[in-house]
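G., the chain you wanted modeled:
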Amino acid sequence: MNITRFTTAALAGSLVLTLTGCGVAETAGQVSNAASTAAVCADALRIATANLDVTNPQAAADKAHASADELTGLAAKAANTSAAEAINNLATTMRETTVDDLVKTPAEWVKKKADQVTALTKACGG
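Predicted structure as C-alpha coordinates:
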Protein backbone atom coordinates (compact mmCIF):
# COMPACT_ATOMS: atom_id res chain seq x y z
CA MET A 1 0.00 0.00 0.00
CA ASN A 2 2.85 2.40 0.71
CA ILE A 3 4.13 1.99 -2.86
CA THR A 4 0.67 2.82 -4.24
CA ARG A 5 0.45 5.96 -2.12
CA PHE A 6 3.94 6.97 -3.11
CA THR A 7 3.18 6.40 -6.81
CA THR A 8 -0.06 8.38 -6.54
CA ALA A 9 1.71 11.24 -4.77
CA ALA A 10 4.50 11.23 -7.34
CA LEU A 11 2.02 11.31 -10.21
CA ALA A 12 0.07 14.13 -8.57
CA GLY A 13 3.28 16.07 -8.04
CA SER A 14 4.29 15.56 -11.67
CA LEU A 15 0.88 16.73 -12.83
CA VAL A 16 1.12 19.90 -10.73
CA LEU A 17 4.60 20.63 -12.10
CA THR A 18 3.43 20.01 -15.66
CA LEU A 19 0.40 22.28 -15.28
CA THR A 20 2.51 24.96 -13.61
CA GLY A 21 5.04 24.71 -16.41
CA CYS A 22 2.29 25.16 -18.99
CA GLY A 23 1.10 28.29 -17.20
CA VAL A 24 4.62 29.70 -17.12
CA ALA A 25 5.14 28.93 -20.82
CA GLU A 26 1.80 30.52 -21.68
CA THR A 27 2.61 33.64 -19.66
CA ALA A 28 6.06 33.85 -21.25
CA GLY A 29 4.42 33.54 -24.66
CA GLN A 30 2.03 36.37 -23.85
CA VAL A 31 4.90 38.57 -22.68
CA SER A 32 6.86 37.70 -25.83
CA ASN A 33 3.83 38.52 -28.04
CA ALA A 34 3.34 41.85 -26.26
CA ALA A 35 7.01 42.74 -26.71
CA SER A 36 6.86 41.68 -30.35
CA THR A 37 3.75 43.78 -30.95
CA ALA A 38 5.31 46.77 -29.21
CA ALA A 39 8.39 46.55 -31.45
CA VAL A 40 6.25 46.13 -34.57
CA CYS A 41 4.08 49.07 -33.56
CA ALA A 42 7.10 51.27 -32.91
CA ASP A 43 8.50 50.46 -36.36
CA ALA A 44 5.11 51.00 -38.02
CA LEU A 45 4.68 54.38 -36.34
CA ARG A 46 8.21 55.40 -37.34
CA ILE A 47 7.46 54.55 -40.97
CA ALA A 48 4.01 56.15 -40.91
CA THR A 49 5.21 59.43 -39.46
CA ALA A 50 8.20 59.86 -41.77
CA ASN A 51 7.78 63.06 -43.73
CA LEU A 52 7.35 62.82 -47.47
CA ASP A 53 9.03 65.52 -49.55
CA VAL A 54 6.02 66.92 -51.41
CA THR A 55 8.21 69.30 -53.38
CA ASN A 56 8.89 66.22 -55.54
CA PRO A 57 5.47 64.50 -55.71
CA GLN A 58 6.69 61.53 -57.77
CA ALA A 59 9.49 60.77 -55.30
CA ALA A 60 7.04 61.20 -52.42
CA ALA A 61 4.57 58.76 -54.00
CA ASP A 62 7.40 56.28 -54.62
CA LYS A 63 8.48 56.58 -50.98
CA ALA A 64 4.88 56.03 -49.87
CA HIS A 65 4.75 52.84 -51.95
CA ALA A 66 8.02 51.61 -50.44
CA SER A 67 6.66 52.40 -46.98
CA ALA A 68 3.57 50.34 -47.80
CA ASP A 69 5.77 47.33 -48.51
CA GLU A 70 7.57 47.76 -45.18
CA LEU A 71 4.27 48.15 -43.33
CA THR A 72 2.85 45.00 -44.93
CA GLY A 73 5.88 43.07 -43.73
CA LEU A 74 5.42 44.43 -40.22
CA ALA A 75 1.73 43.58 -40.16
CA ALA A 76 2.62 39.95 -40.83
CA LYS A 77 4.82 39.98 -37.71
CA ALA A 78 2.24 41.56 -35.37
CA ALA A 79 0.95 39.14 -32.76
CA ASN A 80 -1.96 41.48 -32.02
CA THR A 81 -4.63 41.18 -34.72
CA SER A 82 -5.98 44.69 -34.09
CA ALA A 83 -2.51 46.15 -34.58
CA ALA A 84 -1.98 44.04 -37.72
CA GLU A 85 -5.28 45.27 -39.16
CA ALA A 86 -4.42 48.91 -38.42
CA ILE A 87 -0.98 48.48 -40.00
CA ASN A 88 -2.52 46.86 -43.08
CA ASN A 89 -5.04 49.70 -43.42
CA LEU A 90 -2.22 52.21 -43.32
CA ALA A 91 -0.21 50.15 -45.81
CA THR A 92 -3.17 50.19 -48.21
CA THR A 93 -3.40 53.98 -48.02
CA MET A 94 0.32 54.32 -48.64
CA ARG A 95 0.25 51.81 -51.51
CA GLU A 96 -2.65 53.63 -53.18
CA THR A 97 -1.02 57.06 -52.90
CA THR A 98 -0.80 58.84 -56.23
CA VAL A 99 0.97 61.96 -57.38
CA ASP A 100 -2.48 63.55 -57.78
CA ASP A 101 -3.26 62.84 -54.10
CA LEU A 102 -0.14 64.74 -53.10
CA VAL A 103 -0.64 67.60 -55.58
CA LYS A 104 -4.41 68.10 -55.81
CA THR A 105 -5.72 66.94 -52.42
CA PRO A 106 -2.79 66.89 -49.99
CA ALA A 107 -4.90 67.95 -46.99
CA GLU A 108 -7.32 65.06 -47.52
CA TRP A 109 -4.46 62.61 -47.93
CA VAL A 110 -2.72 63.86 -44.77
CA LYS A 111 -5.99 63.67 -42.80
CA LYS A 112 -6.68 60.11 -43.92
CA LYS A 113 -3.15 59.06 -43.03
CA ALA A 114 -3.35 60.87 -39.66
CA ASP A 115 -6.63 59.12 -38.84
CA GLN A 116 -5.03 55.78 -39.61
CA VAL A 117 -1.98 56.60 -37.50
CA THR A 118 -4.36 57.43 -34.63
CA ALA A 119 -6.14 54.09 -35.13
CA LEU A 120 -2.77 52.32 -35.15
CA THR A 121 -1.73 54.06 -31.95
CA LYS A 122 -4.97 52.95 -30.26
CA ALA A 123 -4.63 49.38 -31.54
CA CYS A 124 -1.07 49.18 -30.31
CA GLY A 125 -1.95 50.55 -26.90
CA GLY A 126 -4.80 48.18 -26.30
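The helical segments are 2-48, 57-77, 81-95, 99-104, 106-125.

Shout if anything looks off.
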